[in-house]
Amino acid sequence: MAYMIRGLDPASFEHLFGLSDAALAEHNAVRRRADTKPGFPCRVTLEDAEPGEDLILLNHQHLPVDSPYRGSYAIYVREGATEAAEYRDAVPLQLARRLLALRAFDDEGMLLKADVIDGSELDAVIEPWLADPAVAYLHAYNAKPGCFAARIDRG
């Protein structure tokens, strides 16, 4: 089954790019400089930032649903990211190299299934999960810190 993993729309974050640290703080965001790789996963480009790159750390509502599963958490976005990544029937290295919590949701934002998997197994798990007609989409989370990593849709 075809699937698509997309980065977040950079337009949602452009208003933060280039702001001073004080101005970022007014948005409950902070600037961080990557000092290791992997370690600073950009949710727009779906790549780990290179050491020395600046990112914005902010709270993002990744599951804006009217259900008990509505969710937001901290994410990194590369400062100046301009284009959302698209991976068709392929898993970005950023996901493949991490321990992931995978969750399946229905059209009403209700959790149907969840598991913890090695990111290298993600491709093999996506097809059978999306084959279930009750599943509307999947979310991948970085299992250790618990942050949203990417949404996976039928492609």
TrEMBL record:
InterPro entries: DUF1203. This is DUF1203 domain-containing protein. It comes from Sphingomonas panacisoli.
